[in-house]
Structures are given as structure tokens and as C-alpha cells.
Amino acid sequence: MNWQPELDELRRREALAQELGGAEKVARQHQAGRLDVRARILHLLDPGSFHEIGAIAGKARYDDNNDLLSFIPSNCVMGRGSVDGRAVVVVGDDFTVRGGSADATIREKPLLAERMASEFRLPILRIIEGSGGGGSVKTIETTGRANLPGGVGSALGFHYATANLAVVPVVALGLGSVAGLGAARLAASHYAVMTKSSAVFVAGPPVVARLGQDLGKQELGGWQIQTRSGAVDDAVETEEEAFARARRFLSYLPSSVFELPPVIACADDPARRDEALLEAIPRDPRKVYKMRPIIETLFDRGSFFETGMFFGRPIITGLARLHGRPVALMAGDPYHYGGSWTAEACQKIIRLVDLAEVFHLPVVHLVDCPGFMIGLEAEKAATIRHGVRAMAAINQCSVPWCSVILRNAFGVAGAIHQPAGRLSLRYAWLSARWGSLPLEGGIEAAYRAELDAAPDPEARRREIETRLNKLRSPFRTAESFWVEEIIDPRDTRRLLCEFADLAGPLLTPGPTHFAIRP
Amino acid sequence: MPASFPPGHRKIFSDLNASVWRVLVTEGQFVAAGETLLLLESMKMEIPVTAPEAGTIVAILVAEEAVVNEGDPLVVMLKSTG
User: Fold this and answer.
1) Residue B69 with chain A: CB contacts under 8 Å
2) pLDDT tens for residues A454-473?
3) Which residue, A77, A78, A72, is CA-closest to A98?
4) Chain A contact for B19, CB < 8 A?
5) Which of A208, A307, A346, A492 could covalently link to A386 via disulfide, CB atoms 3.0 to 4.6 Å apart?
């Protein structure tokens, strides 16, 4: 006799696992416009690539003969698969089983996913819904004890939540209501995306109501809250878009820090010149311009992947390609405080530069920065503390760096447009202007005595401004070699592609000398 | 400011904390999509606020030199149906 009966039993149990929390719960999930966890995994991964681990782990009931009566699978579905042909680990919460709560998870399943990502050096994709394996107070009754968070045997998940960030790409998708531990697992990632119908919070509306705050899910933790706060990087309309964003994010990164970012064939001419660049920057320094079209034209066509669009908006960050090589990109956005580095912009810069350092991405900085944000609100936000942290991140990173000064570079924030202690490439556009501080306001500070003594202080101020404006031409700076090169803006793409090619051989796989923080 | 606006109206909000430098439209005026409605001033830069779609200006909620915060409504528009 062969093992057919056991095989049948295995297949039966696997089939039960396919039913998730039961037809009714699954139908409710679909009616709410959300895919179930298995459909999500299938859509997220390459077709046919999902290899599940632990499908038949769950809670079973047996009859008096010890034959299986019923089975509820763990609400953690995990395994391996591929994205664009590259192996990944995927771990997803099943909201149809006890709302994704911990008492139905089996702690070791999500843990194994994180451990496999770490030890097999594979990117991990977390599909998060519910409390993401966190407990509810009901757990006290079902287990007969309260758990100490991080207590004996339960700290390993928290270990991997940070440790994996320094080893493999961690992408998290918030799809539905994401609370507590789920919110932590979402935020503890290199890239977190949520759908616009989802909500993310430390604690949901019923708990917050105890504070006297009567808020709906969206009001408390909708995408407009969480993308503006910077807790979540991106929001999209549909789950399909979230999968596409997650896959695309991974396309710029190596599978782990022990590899280099994947270089792809480039159909876009590296020497392409865009005539529009010669007039991209308005001559009037008070007039703003749109940075994103400049980014689109400088980098490989269609390669710009923006992250954190609604947070720290004076800085645009993202990933892109130059001559097929992935790079990290930061660029000032004059539409937001003239590109001044606010406390939030500094946090965004740190996140980008640390990501670049961990995954060996050269950095391109399109500089337009009139300085740190000023004023009372800026001081209260500890702009200078976050500013010097951004400075530290930039100075500590070791990946090749190229700065192009499009317009303003002023003050300390202007000074840290590139790492201070090593050689980077730097170009200035014809429209570049710089100084310790802008003339506007700077004159009042530096020429106070002279202005006070003048019969017409305003006329004297204008006189001084005209005089200084003549002297501060970038050509005078280049004459004394304070800046290496002033370039025709139309040559920028060619020079950036050359930079990416020069940077390629310098990239060194391996862990960074620091461990990145989320 | 009237208590209510016509059905289908759309408010245009400020993207940032700024002062209102110039108001370039008047109530009742028809504007094209992309037309500049007003200029905000922030960090010595003029930030244009543009019409997201063609329509009529129903109300202007701010005056020149007023200080506005991120998220404050600036202009109320009614989308062109013609």
C-alpha cells in the first residue's frame, strides 16, 4: 500500500486553508472592495510563482475518533515567490480570520517570513491588514494571561522589524484598517504604501474616543493624514496600484545589501539634450518653476519613481535611472517655501540618503535651497536639530554623489548640498546663485550701522543690493574656483549619465557601517 | 463670506503657509484651466495658485496681505458646464 490516504489528507487540509475564514467572511471582505489575502499575494507576485509555507497551520477541531472536524487556518499567509523574476518573501494578514488578530496568527509564521528574508537575503513584502498580528484584549481571555510586549519569546519579531532594514528591501502595503502592531510593521519599512480607502493608526476610533476625540477611521488615519505626516510614503486608489508600486520600488534595489542595484538596458539616449532646459529657470528670482518636469527630462525617460510626495514637500525625493543605472534622487521644490529645508524636509532627506547608502545607490541632488526654513514655527519644529541630522546623514554616506546647482544654495542647508568630507561631482547651472545668506534680509543684518546712519536707509539698501548683485555673479565664484564648473543646462543629462557610469564600479556590496532606522 | 455655495462648487486650498501677494481674479470672472488665480508669497518667492479646471469664480476668500495657513481655502469656483 502506498501513501495515498495521507496525500489525500494533506490535500484536504490544504483545501481547507484555501477557504480562509469561510465563504461568508471572504464575501464580506470582497463586498468592502478589498481582495482577500490569497488574491493579494497572487496579484502581487509573478503569476504562478507563489510557494506557500505552512498553509495547513491553524486551529483544528477533532471528533471523538480524532478525525478532523473543522479547520481554521492561521491568519498569516506566507511563503516565497518572485517579483520580476527575482525571489522574494511575502507575508500577508488574513482579515477574514479574527480580523487579522494575534490569537489566530501562530506567532512563528510571520517570524519565519522575516527570518527567511534575513537569512536567505530576500526582499520581504508585508501585506498588512488589521492589527497585523497584534493582540486584542480578548486575547487575555482566550489565553488566560496578559502578554508582556516584547516579553520572553516574543521579542524576536521586533528584532527583525529593525534588523531586516539593514539587510534586505522591506516593502509594506497597508490595505484596509491597519492598527497597533500592524501600523508598526507598515512604518518599519523602506517603502510603505496604502490605498486611499485604508486607514492607519496606532489605535483606532473606539480607543481614541476615550480621549474625547470623536473621529472616523479616515479622519484619524486616512491617507491624507498619514502621507502628510510622513508615516506612510504613498497612497494609491486601488490595491492593484499598490502592488504595482511595491513591485516598481523593488526594481531599483538589489535583493539584499550583499548585491548591487540591477542595471537595465537603457533605450533613452544618454546624451539627449532638452532645449527647454535653457529657459527652465525664470530670470526673476521671485518666480517659481516646476522641478518635476526637469527631473523627468534629465533622467531616463519614465524612470522617475517619486516617494513621499505629500511629506516634507520642499524636497522631492525618489528613485530613478541614469543610463539604466538606479540612483537616488533629491531635488528642491521652489513651490514649497522656495525649497527651504523644513524639519520635515530634513527627515525626508535622511530617509532617502540612508536608503541610498544601505542599497548602494548613487545620489543625485538637484539643488535649489535658499536655506533652512526660518521663523517661529520652524524654530519650534527643531528645524536646526533635524537639519544637522540631515547634514550627518549626507556627510556619513559613502555612495558616489553628484550635485547640480540649479538656482539657490544658501546658508548651512545650502552648504550640505553634498557630503563634506570627500569628493563629489558638482555642476552649476547658469541660473545658480549662492551665498551665506540671501541678500534680502542679509543686507539689513550686515550693513545695519551704515543703513541707520544713511539719510535715506531704503535708498542706501537698494544701492548696496545693486552693488552686491554685480559681485555675486557665479562667474566670479568660478573665477576663484569656489565652484568647479558652470554648465549649459542642456548638457546636464549627459553629465549625469556619465556620473552614473563612473559611479557603477565604485559601488561596494555589503552592510553599511551603521544600521538604518525606519 | 456666504454661508453656502452653489452645488458642485470647488474650493481651492493653500498648499502652504504664506501671505497673499496678489489677487488676480474677481468674483464672477470666468477662468481657464491653469489660469493663475492669485500669487502667494513665501520665503520671498511668488507661488502661483492656478485653476484646476475652467470655471467661474464664485468667491474670493482672502485679501491681499492676508496670512494663510496650509489647507486654508482661498477661492471658491464653479466648474464650467459649457
Assistant:
1) none
2) 999 999 988 998 888 888 88
3) A72
4) no
5) A346
Strand partners, A372: A341
* B46 in reach of chain A (CB within 8 A): yes
- Residue A302 sits at the vertex; the CA angle it makes with A83 and A335, to the nearest 5 degrees, is 120
Which single residue is written with the C-alpha cell 507563489?
A: A50
| Cβ pair B20, B32 in contact under 8 A | no
Yes or no, beta carbons of B45 and A288 under 8 Å apart: yes
Residue type, A198: S
Grid cell digits, residue B3: 454661508
One-letter amino acid at A186 equals: L
Determine the pLDDT at residue A133: 60
Residue A198 in contact with residue A178, Cβ under 8 Å? yes
> Among A187, A170, A165, A292, which residue's Cα sits nearest to residue A233?
A187
- Give the closest of B43, B46, B48 to A370, CB-based: B43
Q: Angle, to 10 degrees, between the axis of helix A492-503 and the axis of helix A291-298?
A: 60
pLDDT value at A425 more than 70: yes
Q: Give the pLDDT confidence of A237-254 residue by residue, as tens digits.
A: 999 999 999 999 999 999
Distance CA A41, CA A115 (A): 19
SS3 A42: helix
Examine the predicted complex and report whether its ipTM is higher than 0.90. Answer: no
Are A440 and B44 in contact (CB < 8 Å)?
A: yes
Which of A339-351 are b and which e, b meaning 16 or more Cβ less than 10 Å from the residue's Cβ?
bbbbbbbbbbbbb
Burial B29-66 (b: 16+ CB within 10 A, else e): eebeeeeebbbbbbbebbbbbebeebbbbbbbebeeee
